[in-house]
Amino acid sequence: MQNKLNIEQAFQYALSAHQAGRISEAEMVYGRILAALPGHVGALHYLGVCRLQQRDYAGALTHMDAALAQRPDYAEAHSNRGNVLQAMGRCEESLASFDRALACQPSAADAWFNRSNALKELGRFDEALTSVDRAIALQPSFAQAHCNHGNLCQVLGQFAQALVSFERAVALRPDYAEAQWNSAYTHLLLGDLAMGLPLLEWRWRARNRSADDRHQEIPLWLGQTDLAGKTILLYAEQGYGDTLQFCRYASLLAARGAKVVLEVQPSLKSLLASLAGAPAVLATGERLPAVDYRCPLLSLPLAMHTDADTIPGGVPYLGVDPALAAAWQAKLGARRAPLRIGLAWSGSGAHENDRNRSLSLAMLLAAFDGADVECFSLQKDVRADDRAALEADDRIRHFGDELRDFADTAALVAAMDLVISVDTSVAHLAGALAKPVWLLLPFPPDWRWLLDRDDSPWYPTARLFRQPHHGDWATPLRRVADALPSAAST
Question: Is residue 265 domain-shared with residue 350, that is, in the same domain?
Fold first, then answer.
């Protein structure tokens, strides 16, 4: 009896440590319990949870399966096993685990919530919404479920309801950064910059973003003081496209009398030297001069009080090195077709929305069947799945490592008659160079492209081809094919 009591006391201690975030300590105690009592179901399960939190998915699965072998009706273990499988990308299997959890305990709000996440990953959005509704009905104070409800409403185009869901999540947890950030996204997508831009500052408190908030030792400028005679550091914080879009504000600050230092990704440094108003362009990691203030690039629209009527849409604001332009024109040689088109069909695989915003090269090239066009890859890298299409179609040329940085890409873009791109850095580059660019957008699009329009206030030379609903690339590609004859005649 005493030994059993000691093991139970140890287990409760381990749970307390685990709940307090002391995962290594909890893991050690769970291990000692299992050394004394190998079949302890709770220790097996929660040791699996520790491994899940440490991203040791194989270890997590092993321990959870062992727990379920001891107790097949352990609903929480089935649910956490589903979380492991989902993290491994095995979403069909994870859904089955969540269903088993709910068969054991139909009132488990967490399991309904987790099931909704699996359904969302599988693209079954209506079912996912129904599942998260069940979680909320069972636990109305479930802030994360309200937030996920809002995310699903966005995917389904129910933007007003999405805002209501985010507001409910924030009412339950006022410090819920992800819900505040998602609300910002929705307001901005709807064109409400006055509401959206202040909320966008919550991004720094969201998970996995605090490390991106560099230079915190420098005072933050958000428009509160006059910058005349002051030096301000503007710095990249997210992807290449964000840097290319918002670097335009450097000229506006210089016009106010500020000395601008621009810190960007190394592959953008050479290109952005052409930007008016940024006399000092540094690569991330290079030594900074003395500065008075800092402002991350995505905070500039807020700091500059940008609204729908004052978006700085003047282009071009970037230029191309004449020597590089001549070199790339020579490399391309004589025309083989009336229309030269630069193509970008996929972005970074690390982007959280990449599977929705990117498409296959074969799918894009099919839009040009029967058209008298000459195509050029504007991408440095080509995914393995696209390599066969690239090698099989003599209408497209790829340059790979010859594109050393964005200055080379800009020179190649300048040689095109038209750029057709998914929502990636190439689209922003073409827009910044005032090159005609046709942009293929997923549904819902990123906030900067707004809704229900085929133009962009950020890029006057852009034309937008939108999915009417999630996953439908056929419609915008058909519109591209229909529009090509008019592009060839201009």
Answer: no
